[in-house]
Write a structure and sequence with these properties.
The complex is a heterodimer of chains A (about 475) and B (about 400). Chain A has helices at about 20-25, 60-75, 100-105, 215-220, 220-225, 270-280, 295-300, 310-325, 335-345, 415-420, 430-440, 445-450, 455-465, and strands spanning about 95, 125-130, 150-155, 160-175, 180-190, 200-205, 245-250, 255, 360, 375, 380-385, 400-405. With about 475 residues, chain A is α+β, with helices and mostly antiparallel strands. Chain A has one domain. In chain A, strands 1-3 form a two-stranded antiparallel ribbon. The longest helix of chain A is centred in the N-terminal third of the chain and has 15 residues, at about 60-75. Chain B is mainly alpha-helical. Chain B has a single domain (about 10-390), classed as Up-down Bundle (A middle domain of Talin 1). Chain B contains 16 helices and two strands. In chain B, a hairpin with a 5-residue loop joins strand 1 (about 310-315) and strand 2 (about 320). The chains are: A alpha+beta (about 475), B mainly alpha (about 400).
Chain lengths: ~475, ~400
């Protein structure tokens, strides 16, 4: 059996005797040139294994350290059809996309589109809505199929449909003459189980994002996020940046959207509860009603696994888990290529939306996440990303061309954790260069600058991104 | 996790450049303890040499017992009966004893769980029963029942299905064998009661496929354990043992401590005991089909103690003995060595005090406090291991790399 030469594999950081520390500080060992290494502040971890996204943030309280594992068990467990003797975990469906959270966020990581026709369970789903808005500011769902296509169902109930993807290659060229191709996905909803979709239906495919750092993002003070907003582009830099305002069901009020590809969820709690209902068919106190069309009798009458199907106590353990998954530190911040790539990132304007740094405020329940200088590389705002990326499906304040700037932390580890390098909201980009090349709208100028970069600089930029 | 020694991590980054400097100071610190660097180096080398000998013999014992299990499985499949099934189950339980102790060698990217390590193929859990075979209320579930998707059960198929699509989709390893022998555990009083007739063609659906499945999984388990034995065998300049004994001594010591620290605090205290305690659900116990979780827990705790004391009692009753972590710690800080020794004792005592079966212990109000005491004892033990690491000059993060 061949073995890697390094036994450490960077999992655990080499360390120093405590008594050495004051001496080291005097030697000035820290290099101020390199990009910030501790992406998650003091809650960063050093881990480059397939479990890099599955670690608890250092500094959790003693009880939280234990509850993290309980949350993890709910995250991984396969839910089963009710009734079952395993009462804590029955209530799957009736309609669903996955049996467990980990079914899409495998190893707490990033989902991807299917690689072959018929491959399913890879962590991609299709959201649905109609063009008219409800009173809470969201958009009406399809009267039959609801807010997303669920491609699985419990026994005795038809799945809603099957999503297939066809790809069209688009050719392009860098200024230096190097050619590239992008794959434009074309989505088809087939084998509809319950008749036609509404004629005005709007579709939006989404892959499951990596789970790390969500508690840190939640702890960023709202005013810090709003300070970067420039909805009418008053500074004339071509970048607007708009906050999404979404309905917070727990507080019964509008709130800043932070999570999801269109920032349509205000809190880790609501994001988690939304995914439980939409993706697995598990009701919570936040979303107590099962996802069934009014006309879908079998769905409405299917046995429930409790009311709600996961109680608040257990739900909050999953929320604790999701909030405290640690962000891996940068891998090789001292590498000259990475340093150069970091400079290019700033120079060509990536950092205008993927803002590198911010400071968290006080996290209400996890002190370890409070007052951390973090480097998520996102402003958490909505930006017009151009026609090519548009899903043409608005979501609260987000237009059909807008997407939330996703955090970039962890993007260099998808291959290690999830065995793929698919990026963007539907995983259409097959590598980081393609992901940049898909940027348009407010990012069109940045894309143009990227096209003009010589090969070595493009490579340095990608290397920087891979080190995040 | 707070088990991690908090060292300003930006300084750690400079480690490679500062290696020489680091070693110089290391020596300085040692001299101040009144020991020569040469003595310390000899002591460390002896601890490492004894460690690799213990690792090797415990994997050897696991392999031996698992081969005995395989022999029993063959006999059972040749003539299924209550008697042959009972013997097979006994062999499975016996094989778990040495294997559980080897879990103290995980979590540092060694052969068992580096990027292509077989840990997930050997001991992955919890297993979703319905992914493999029929369960109560779903007589046609699982890989075994799905003739159209999986017309032929073979080794490559079962490997490819392990952890496919979800982390509980476990198709192979000890716990797949456990489920195939015991079946679902439907009571808190005893283990699962799968009838031997599940393997008798004509008496149960897919009996032949099930037999084939069981034989393949046993075979695969042997192969993976053979790899572990080979990786730690003496006198092979190319294997991991050679690499381990040649690496920087402090890196080797760090690995040794990471293994026992993570097992103690995260895997054992957190995942295997507290999660089941908190959920009060036997689905969360490690060996839920056989009701052998109490032994898994004791074997894990014993594995930690073995590494600390430098003594491993083999399945034939002989022991592999030499200098252990306690000897090294004794040389650096006798008081700390005594504290950890007492925490290791407390850990062992507390896990032995959990009444069997574990699935009843986690719901019985009289035994729940005993379960929780074991959690705290193992948490304290893990924290102390991290602290001891600092005294020995290494950082131990006891967070779990799942």
């Amino acid at each position: 059996m061949s073995r890697s030469p390094s036994p450490l594999k960077g999992r655990i950081k080499p360390a120093l005797i405590v008594s050495v520390l004051p001496l080291l500080a005097l030697t000035g060992g820290c290099d101020s040139q390199h990009p910030p290494e501790l992406l998650g502040g003091q809650t960063s971890i050093y881990n480059v294994t397939p479990n890099a996204f599955s670690q608890p943030a250092p500094g959790l309280e003693r009880e939280q350290e234990l509850l993290f594992f309980v949350g993890n068990s709910f995250f991984n467990q396969n839910w089963v059809t009710a009734p079952s003797s395993t009462e804590a975990r029955d209530g799957l469906g009736p309609l669903f996309n996955a049996r467990s959270c980990a079914g899409c966020h495998f190893k707490d990581g990033r989902g991807r589109p299917p690689e072959s026709d018929g491959e399913s369970g890879t962590g991609l789903l299709v959201r649905l809505s109609l063009p008219n808005r409800t009173e809470d500011g969201s958009y009406f769902a399809d009267p039959i199929y609801g807010g997303q296509i669920q491609d699985y169902a419990i026994q005795g109930i038809l799945p809603e449909a099957r999503v297939t993807i066809l790809g069209e290659e688009i050719r392009g060229e860098y200024t230096d003459g190097t050619t590239f191709t992008l794959r434009q996905p074309v989505y088809r909803i087939e084998e509809l189980g319950y008749g036609e979709l509404h004629p005005d239906i709007m579709l939006s495919p989404r892959v499951a994002p990596q789970m790390i750092g969500m508690g840190l993002l939640e702890a960023i003070p709202e005013e810090k996020i709003l300070a970067n907003a420039d909805p009418s582009d008053r500074d004339g830099d071509g970048i607007s940046g708009r906050p999404n305002r979404v309905w917070d069901r727990s507080r019964n009020s509008f709130a800043l959207g932070r999570f999801g590809w269109k920032a349509n969820q205000p809190t880790v709690l609501q994001q988690t509860a939304g995914a439980f209902l939409g993706d697995i068919g598990i009701t919570t106190s936040v979303f107590p009603e099962q996802n069934c069309a009014e006309t879908h009798v079998e769905c409405l009458e299917a046995q429930r696994g409790g009311n709600p199907e996961i109680d608040d106590d257990d739900l909050m353990k999953v929320v604790l888990y999701a909030s405290s998954l640690a962000v891996p530190a940068m891998r090789n911040p001292d590498d000259p290529q990475v340093i150069k790539g970091g400079e290019i990132f700033e120079d060509i304007g990536c950092g205008d939306c993927h803002t590198p740094s911010t400071l968290t405020g006080i996290h209400p329940t996890i002190p370890a996440l409070s007052e951390q200088t973090i480097h998520p590389y996102t402003d958490l705002l909505l930006h017009d990303m151009g026609e090519a990326l548009a899903d043409r499906r608005p979501d609260f304040e987000a237009t059909g061309r807008e997407w939330r700037t996703p955090p970039l932390w962890g993007i260099g580890l998808f291959e290690t954790v999830n065995g793929h390098t698919y990026y963007l909201h539907d995983g259409r980009a097959r590598n980081l260069s393609e992901a940049i090349l898909w940027h348009g709208g407010e990012a069109a100028a940045v894309r143009t600058r990227f096209l003009k970069l010589p090969l070595a600089q493009r490579q340095a930029l990608v290397q920087f991104l891979q080190s995040l | 996790m707070s088990g991690a020694v908090t060292i300003p991590t930006h300084i750690g980054r400079t480690m490679h450049r500062q290696q020489t400097f680091f070693l110089a100071v290391f020596v300085l610190v040692l001299s101040s303890c009144g020991r020569s660097a040469a003595e310390r180096a000899a002591l460390e080398s002896a601890v490492i040499a004894n460690y690799v000998a213990i690792v090797h013999s415990s994997y050897e014992d696991s392999l031996t017992r698992t081969k005995q299990l395989q022999v029993a499985i063959s006999a059972f499949l040749d003539s299924p009966s209550d008697a042959t099934l009972r013997i097979t189950k006994e062999r499975w339980l016996a094989a778990r004893e040495p294997y559980g102790q080897t879990e103290a060698y995980r979590f540092y990217g060694g052969p068992i769980d580096d990027a292509d390590g077989p840990e997930g193929l050997i001991n992955a859990w919890p297993l979703d029963e319905a992914y493999v075979d029929y369960v109560e209320g779903a007589p046609r579930s699982g890989i075994l029942s799905d003739l159209s998707t999986y017309p032929t059960i073979d080794r490559d198929l079962l490997i490819s299905l392990n952890e496919a699509g979800a982390e509980e989709n476990i198709s192979v390893g000890f716990h797949a064998i456990e489920f195939l022998l015991w079946g679902q555990d439907r009571s808190v009083e005893g283990p699962g009661e799968r009838p031997y007739t599940d393997y008798v063609e004509g008496e149960a659906a897919h009996a032949e496929r099930r037999a084939r499945y069981l034989a393949i999984v046993a075979d695969l388990l042997i192969d993976n354990l053979e790899d572990m034995v080979a990786a730690w065998a003496p006198d092979d300049p190319e294997n991991y043992r050679a690499e381990f004994t040649a690496m920087d001594r402090s890196a080797a010591i760090q690995n040794i401590l990471i293994g026992i620290g993570v097992l103690s605090k995260s895997e054992l205290a957190g995942e295997r005991i507290f999660t089941a305690y908190d959920n009060q659900d036997q689905e969360d116990e490690h060996s839920c089909f056989s009701d052998n979780t109490h032994r898994d827990i004791i074997a894990n705790a014993l594995g930690i103690a073995n590494v600390f004391t430098g003594r491993y009692v083999r399945i034939d009753g002989t022991s592999v003995e030499g200098l252990g972590m306690n000897d090294l710690l004794q040389a650096v800080d006798p008081q700390s060595a005594a504290e950890l020794a007492s925490l290791i004792d407390r850990g062992l005592e507390s896990v032995r005090a959990i009444p069997a079966p574990f699935d009843r212990a986690i719901i019985d109000p009289d035994s729940r406090p005993l379960v929780l005491e074991a959690v705290y004892a193992l948490q304290d033990q893990g924290d102390k291991i991290a602290q001891v690491g600092t005294q020995l000059g290494v950082t131990i993060n006891t967070a779990l790399p799942e």
